[in-house]
Amino acid sequence: MLAASDLGQFDSFRPKRFAQRFGLDPFLAVLLLVTGGFGLVILYSASGHSNQMVLRQGIHFILGLTAMGLVSTCRRDTIIKLTPFLYVFATLMLLLVLLIGVGAKGAQRWLDLPGIPQFQPSELMKIALPAMISWWLTRNPIPPTVIHLLIAAVLIALPVGLIARQPDLGTSIIIAGSGFFVIFLAGISWRLLGLLLATGLASLPVLWSVMHDYQRTRVMTLFDPQSDPLGAGWNTIQAMTALGSGGLFGKGYSLGTQAQLKFLPESHTDFIVAVLGEEMGFFGICMLLLLFSLILGRCIVLTLRAESHFGRLLSGSITLTFFAYVFVNLGMVSGVLPVVGVPLPLISYGGTSVVSLLVGFGLIMAMQRTNRVLSGEP
Amino acid sequence: MELRTGVPERRLIGQRVLIAAFCGVCLLMLLLTRLIWLQLIEHERFVTASEANRLQTIPIGPARGLILDRNGLVLAENTPRLRVSVVPEESDDLEAFIDAVRERITLTDAEFSGFQKNLKSRRRPRDPVILKEIIGDEEAAILAVDAYQFPELRLEARPTRSYPFGRLTSHSLGYVGRLSSGELQNIGQRRYSGTEMIGKIGVEKAYENALLGQVGIERVETSARGQIMRSIERQEPVPGDNIKLHLDIGLQAKLYDILGDRRGAVVALDPRNGGIMALVSAPSFDANIFTHGLSNADYRRLEKDSSNPLFNRALRGQYPPGSTLKPMLGMVGLHYGSVNWKTEIRDRGYFQIEGIEHKYRDWKKWGHGRVNLEKAIIESCDTYFYEAAVRLGIDQMAEGMGLFGFGRRMGQDIVGELPGILPSREWKRSARKEAWYLGETVIAGIGQGSWVTTPLQLATATMVMARRGSFIAPHYSTRLDDDSGRRVNLASTLDWERMIDAMENVFHGERGTARGSAKNLKYRIAGKTGTVQVVGIAQEEEYEESELKKRFRDHALFIGFAPADSPSLVIALILENGGSGGSTAAPIARKIFDYWLLDRNEGERPPDIPYVLGVNDELARRPNAGGI
């Protein structure tokens, strides 16, 4: 057949070779593109058919993909060298936020510096912290000693504390988690891990006492949303109603009454998956979960294939953090976790988080480095 | 350099990655289980919850029927008024919002405390809480400009009951008031689902059923903020019926004008059909304040007012009828044969029961001399009626007088009247648990003692006279017109005519008690004056020193109708502490008849609206105006 020769051209396309040449992992890139596109479709409905929002999110997504591509071509040793500087820079930025930051609803999260667009330094820290911990632990023997761990803990606690002060409980927990993931992957002994967990549990009452009232109510409503159906329980009840009323195949695209009539709060940001669940049902959510699972699976493969310890630790941490985002968000929307204000990655509306997320994927790809090996890198 | 230390560490990290992946799969399974439970197992329950969220049935209140006077003038209408309310659930900072509202419109302490109270009471979530019942156009404009800043603010135009002649008609029409939860239990909750007000008293209460109308229903899809997105089904409400009354607003105004500052009551009836043409209780109050949300403090102030503006003297004032009773009593005496037109007595100024020293005195110290029935009516001779009462006996007197409507409520569409007391042996036994004394029969003959009647009863009894022995129940609405009447079988037609002649001579005779008011009369009035002593002051009432004297003065009464031959207006009039019937009440009666028969040509000429409104405004300016 005539097409056979054409097909031959495609046959000659080898993902591995492509990745070796450009740094970009085509399999992961396509998955991200599909998921992001799916996200835009959901956003269009969730935002009440706002072209403007979809356009903005699309632009951010393309920006993020470009950044991902650029980062994926970076040299690994350059990244390792830059890591401490990035960490210090991000920490300073967080300090600056506490001093001159802007924000809304009683939280101060944004930095509005002249000449550059508004951004959240905590997004920068999402990359900088796991990189820094990976850098620190791989400078020393693996598994780390207690002294090294203590220093790592300080490195984690400093930015996490700053972010918690904004206050941004959700993000600070996630970032603390990303640091912890590095330590976990670096082979911390199970005994120490158990000790850490025990300390964590013991410090829960302390955490409770420093929490804001609204944060406490959120936790309380997790156990009984009906205790305050119009206040703190409202979000959870409406989200569960949206999901539950969606059923197997949903009410149809753009036909979800919970979302379209605004019973569902934050429907285009943190609770966007409830819109999906209402309009496309269990089926739609399973589609999304499948995409996420494929992304995660590919990330795990890439992590295992990563060239250096630094690369593996960083890739693993980014992968696990991505998973944590997905799990916490879905858990919050379906009412098994408290409402902590964590967006659903790649789907929720919000520019900076998309960019930082995709930069993270770029780092995972950069850690592959196979091209550099071939081209004679030491 | 990593190659040196590479392999074991690499395996360690790989192991950890796989452990983490395994945990991740477990957690995803957990999520999936949760989603299956939500979306597949509990699906139906959440569908119900989501439908309940989305669909709302909104009742649409019908327009309340209008109340019209005999000329078709609107006495009670529905005018759109703006109400300010708040949806607390939509407020980020309720206190700041209230402060912002206070900067723009005046909010009285009563309104504010009422709001605070309602805020705490049970209500449906997202139901607005009323902040200010009614605001003026100017304030509304000020609020509306900034409304976009306040998502919690609700400014809605609602039809509000208003009474254009509020002070003139309040005692007849009554008023509507907020439906209380107790009332809601007793009436059809569905019928009132779109209505907040209910007739509390007066015509508004009597015709509540007809005025209300039928509630409409709209099924709508609403957003979480309670905004209506679209209508799914709508069933229009049916407005209430209009009620046309016999009331003449011109006559009503004239009566208040004539009464001036005096306390008292007038009831004017149309003897041809029993319609209530005017019902006046002075002082009056402005019924509009009740529909505009009256605060407790204001209500208490009205209630405490010593001249009692809220008290309906025409229906609930129980006064001894005094000499106004004599024509009816004469008819009863004639019927039972205890007197006839030729019966004469010698009046020496007092009456004595045989064998008892006590003298029952006539109002005229030296007596009227030789007196027959006609003269006894014209000159209002007490001695004659002492004698007649004793001859008649209390039982026959009670039976005969009962035919005129004394001692019972008139009913019909009249709400809140009192029955008065028609004294009889039986009444005394059941009410006072005491035996009847002959002496009581004596003073009952001049309408004193236990006798008490309401002005409405007096007017009704006078109407029986005007109709020459035919009873017809008084009523407000033309709906109840029934010109058949019920024959009062007392004496003969000739007797009725002769009694009316005697009543005419009260005005037109040389010695009539009302002759002073008969100058240049172009028509003939049949009437009877009365002066009753104010026996005492009830223990709990407190009066100022100067008031005390005034309150001991006699009540002045008058009953009568005109033109005597073919009556078109019957009145009963009482002036509290007004002095003598002949000198105070009769001249006022003359003015009333002049107005109706001459100025208005028996209603042929329409009322003068500017005058009516002028009187209404004038009432508001009086010190005891009964308003705020």
Question: What would you say this structure looks like, in words?
Answer:
Chain A is mainly alpha-helical. Chain A has two domains: 26-73 and 226-370, no CATH class; 83-211. Chain A has 17 helices and no strands. In chain A, α3 (26-46) runs antiparallel to α4 (51-72), α4 packs parallel to α16 (351-366) and α6 packs parallel to α8 (169-185). Chain A is globular, with a radius of gyration of 22 Å. Mean pLDDT of chain A is 84; it is low at 1-9 and 371-378. Chain B is of the alpha+beta class. Chain B folds into two domains: 57-244, Penicillin-binding protein 2a (Domain 2) (Alpha-Beta Complex), CATH 3.90.1310; 249-621, 3-Layer(aba) Sandwich (Beta-lactamase). Chain B contains 24 helices and 21 strands. In chain B, the strands form seven sheets. In chain B, strands 2, 3, 4, 5 and 10 form a five-stranded mixed β-sheet that branches. In chain B, strands 12-11-21-20-19 form a five-stranded antiparallel β-sheet. In chain B, α14 (326-336) packs across α17. The termini of chain B are far apart. Classes of the chains: A mainly alpha (378), B alpha+beta (628). Chains A and B meet through α8, α12, α14 and α15 of A and α1 and α2 of B.
Key structural traits:
heterodimer, A: 378 residues, mainly alpha, 2 domains, B: 628 residues, Penicillin-binding protein 2a (Domain 2), five-stranded antiparallel sheet, 21 strands
Helices, strands, pairings?
The complex is a heterodimer of chains A (378) and B (628).
Chain A: H1 2-11, H2 15-22, H3 26-46, H4 51-72, H5 76-100, H6 121-139, H7 146-164, H8 169-185, H9 190-202, H10 204-210, H11 213-223, H12 232-246, H13 257-260, H14 272-305, H15 309-333, H16 351-366, H17 370-374
Chain B: H1 2-41, H2 43-54, E1 55-60, E2 67-68, E3 74-86, H3 94-104, H4 109-120, E4 129-135, H5 137-145, E5 153-162, H6 166-173, E6 175-178, H7 181-186, E7 197-201, H8 202-206, H9 208-212, E8 216-222, E9 228-235, E10 243-244, H10 249-259, E11 264-270, E12 275-282, H11 288-291, H12 296-304, H13 313-316, H14 326-336, E13 344-347, E14 350-352, E15 359-361, E16 369-372, H15 373-378, H16 382-392, H17 394-402, H18 425-432, H19 438-444, H20 455-466, E17 470-471, E18 486-487, H21 493-508, E19 526-532, H22 545-552, E20 555-562, E21 569-575, H23 581-599, H24 609-621
Parallel strand pairs in B: 2-10
Antiparallel strand pairs in B: 1-8, 2-3, 3-4, 3-5, 6-7, 8-9, 11-12, 11-21, 13-16, 14-15, 17-18, 19-20, 20-21
Helix pairs in contact in B: 10-23, 10-24, 14-16, 14-17, 14-21, 16-19
